[in-house]
């Protein structure tokens, strides 16, 4: 789902939020394609100068979901985020990030006393949340398999990422 933060004095890429993020209205159109190689859903939103989300699952690798965003121009003073929610137990919002794209993921616990922006970290190449309720699913900070469930976000460009509550990860699109 898409959410937006309304900034006060921040400006572009400088999150100084006034309040918690508000959810965008539902998509104005949804198109579904099912074929022998992949299944795809395209959602188009009436937001700014255009917003579209394409979700694709390849039949050969059903545990990998590709999400592509197309974003036009937005009103000033707004930061758009995509929020993914799971049933994972993530110790209140722990997120793992890689600050360089070359190092292993680093554990970043949630800061419940600071502003929302203090929980955003650089997503250079990847970020993840790990389910601590399944065996080997978290707390060690390592990048090994361990048998637990994990949701990873891979990015082509640097953006902000946060885990603000249990089982959720959100990343800033613009």
Topology:
Elements: E1 2-6, E2 22-23, E3 29-34, E4 38-45, E5 51-58, E6 65-71, E7 78-85, E8 95-97, E9 106-108, E10 121-123, E11 126-130, E12 150-154, E13 159-162, E14 168-172
Antiparallel strand pairs: 1-2, 1-7, 3-4, 4-5, 5-6, 7-14, 8-9, 8-11, 10-13, 11-12, 13-14
Task: Work out the number of β strands.
Answer: 14
The assigned structural class equals: mainly beta
Portion in helices: under 10%
Give the terminus-to-terminus CA distance: 15 Å
- Low-confidence blocks of residues: 137-145
> How confident is the prediction overall: mean pLDDT?
81
Architecture overview:
By secondary structure, the protein is an all-beta fold. Helix content is 0%, strand content 41%. The protein contains no helices and 14 strands. It has strands at 2-6, 22-23, 29-34, 38-45, 51-58, 65-71, 78-85, 95-97, 106-108, 121-123, 126-130, 150-154, 159-162, 168-172. A six-stranded antiparallel beta sheet has the order 2-1-7-14-13-10, with no helix packed on it. The protein is globular and about 45 Å long. The two termini are 15 Å apart. The model is unreliable at 137-145 (pLDDT under 50).
How would you summarize this macromolecular structure in one to three sentences?
The protein has 174 residues and is mostly beta strands. The chain has no helices and 14 strands.
């Amino acid at each position: 789902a898409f959410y937006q933060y309304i900034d006060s004095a921040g400006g572009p890429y400088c999150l100084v939020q006034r309040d918690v993020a508000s959810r965008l209205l539902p998509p104005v159109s949804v198109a579904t394609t099912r074929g022998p190689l992949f299944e795809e859903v395209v959602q188009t939103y009436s937001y700014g100068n255009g917003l579209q989300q394409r979700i694709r699952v390849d039949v050969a690798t059903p545990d990998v979901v590709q999400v592509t965003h197309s974003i036009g121009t937005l009103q000033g003073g707004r930061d758009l985020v995509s929020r993914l929610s799971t049933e994972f137990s993530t110790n209140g919002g722990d997120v793992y990030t890689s600050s360089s794209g070359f190092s292993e993921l680093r554990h970043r616990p949630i800061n419940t006393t600071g502003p929302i922006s203090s929980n955003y970290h650089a997503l250079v190449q990847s970020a993840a949340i790990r389910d601590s309720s399944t065996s080997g699913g978290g707390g060690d900070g390592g990048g090994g398999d361990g048998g637990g469930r994990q949701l990873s976000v891979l990015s082509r460009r640097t953006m902000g990422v946060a885990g603000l509550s249990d089982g959720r990860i959100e990343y800033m699109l613009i």
